[in-house]
């Protein structure tokens, strides 16, 4: 038996007819960049998330970097982020020259501790990046209230939604809460392309204009560069067409992911902690488990052919590169505890019922 940790090719097989038709239509059109598919996907994804603007980009990393530039982050600006968010905000800060400021996580869903984020603000704080990690929606409206109470309501909030496409909190999709929201369409994401891709969402037309300039050489119109730090960051027409197909199925696929996590949680009840919620605010990007016996359990699962992984094995401030990058680290007691205990189980909508049941049985036997 071999149950891979990820298997993006399976989704292609399920949607093959629709995807093949969408790709063929782009090939026949002879128009491969900045065309109708991209413009339509931008409209459809903005409408899906409940925001006014979507600007597609080449990757989620570009989306984070351009979000920082959009909020006027510059060398020396401070950017508040959770220490366990996988490094992506750190890389974006590095590109901009900003100083990442690491805060701890909440004990329930292991997301940014919002009180700690507000307490970490200084006069140099340019923005707060909230990552909806593992697919759990962070309560961004609550962060806004805390900022208001602290007299800092003008500090922009950037949502990193790369792991939470479609999650709903307080009746709204993630991506609609922040000043800017970054998405990745990396193939294993809940909404994944057949290659790289990303997007920035926002309601503010000025932000959208600036991001559109930055994504294309800093041009304000063809061949007129006025905005510094422009580059080429484009989602191509084939990826946009594929994403339009997959967007139509996203809610159904997300539901299946959460059902799988719930099945694991029930099978491992009382023995192994599996993070889950079923109110729509979780989309099962990763099935995250916690155990003091993590390494042993992973070995046993691997022995029977069940692949696992760790998200993430190293906190951002503990990465080697941080020896050369200015950063600020606050108290990280929970984050440091987490790193020793966390691991992830296979969780994607195309996992068969048989594979799901095998994992459930193995979990209950292993820890029972
Ligand atoms: C939370 C998060 N942010 C940002 C990124 C970066 O996206 P990309 O790989 O498309 O650059 C990823 C993943 O890959 C991610 O998981």
Summarize, please:
The chain has 368 residues and is an alpha/beta fold.
Question: Would you kindly provide a written description of the structure presented here, covering whatever features stand out?
Answer:
There is one protein chain. The chain is globular and about 65 Å long. It is α/β, with parallel strands linked by helices. It has 2 domains: 8-247, Type I PLP-dependent aspartate aminotransferase-like (Major domain) (Aspartate Aminotransferase, domain 2, 3-Layer(aba) Sandwich); 251-367, Aspartate Aminotransferase, domain 1 (Alpha-Beta Complex). The chain is built from 13 helices and 15 strands. It starts with 7 loop residues before the first helix and ends with a helix. The strands form 4 sheets. An 8-stranded mixed sheet has the order 1-9-8-5-4-2-3-14. The protein has a 3-stranded antiparallel sheet with strand order 12-13-15. A hairpin with a 2-residue loop joins β10 (219-221) and β11 (224-225). The longest helix is centred in the last third of the chain and has 18 residues, at 250-267. α2 runs antiparallel to α9, α3 (36-49) runs parallel beside α9 and α4 packs across α5 (88-96). Pyridoxal-5'-phosphate (PLP) binds at residues 59-61, 64, 86, 88, 131, 160, 162-163, 184, 186, 196, 198. The site of pyridoxal-5'-phosphate has 14 residues, from α4.
């Amino acid at each position: 038996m071999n149950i891979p940790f990820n298997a993006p090719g399976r989704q292609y097989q399920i949607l093959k007819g629709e995807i093949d038709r969408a790709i063929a239509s782009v090939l026949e059109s002879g128009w491969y960049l900045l065309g109708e598919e991209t413009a339509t996907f931008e409209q459809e994804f903005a409408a899906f998330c409940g925001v006014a603007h979507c600007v597609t980009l080449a990757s989620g990393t570009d989306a984070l970097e351009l979000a920082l530039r959009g909020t006027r982050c510059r060398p020396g600006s401070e950017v508040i982020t959770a220490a366990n968010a996988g490094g992506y905000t750190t890389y974006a800060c590095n590109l901009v020259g900003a100083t990442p400021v690491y805060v701890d996580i909440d004990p329930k869903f292991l997301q940014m501790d919002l009180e700690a984020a507000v307490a970490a603000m200084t006069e140099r704080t340019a923005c707060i990046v909230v990552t909806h990690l593992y697919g759990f929606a962070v309560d961004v409206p609550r962060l806004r209230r805390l900022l208001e109470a602290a007299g800092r309501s003008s500090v922009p909030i950037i949502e990193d939604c790369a792991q939470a496409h479609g999650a709903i909190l307080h009746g709204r999709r993630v991506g609609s809460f922040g000043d800017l929201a970054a998405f990745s369409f990396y193939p294993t994401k809940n909404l994944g392309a057949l290659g790289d891709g990303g997007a920035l969402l926002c309601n503010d037309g000025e932000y959208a204009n600036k991001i559109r300039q930055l994504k294309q050489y800093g041009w304000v119109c063809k061949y007129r560069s006025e905005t510094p730090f422009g580059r080429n960051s484009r989602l191509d027409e084939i990826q946009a067409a594929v994403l339009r197909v997959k967007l139509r199925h996203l809610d159904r696929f997300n539901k299946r992911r959460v059902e799988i996590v719930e099945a694991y949680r029930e099978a491992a009840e009382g023995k192994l902690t599996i993070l889950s919620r079923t109110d729509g605010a979780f989309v099962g990007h990763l099935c995250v488990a916690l155990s003091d016996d993590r390494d042993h359990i992973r070995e046993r699962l691997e022995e029977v052919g069940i692949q696992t992984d760790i998200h993430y094995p190293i906190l951002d401030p503990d990465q080697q590169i941080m020896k050369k990058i200015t950063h600020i680290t606050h108290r990280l007691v929970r984050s440091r505890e987490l790193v020793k205990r966390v691991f992830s189980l296979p969780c994607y909508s195309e996992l068969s019922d048989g594979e799901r049941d095998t994992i459930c049985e193995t979990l209950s036997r292993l820890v029972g």
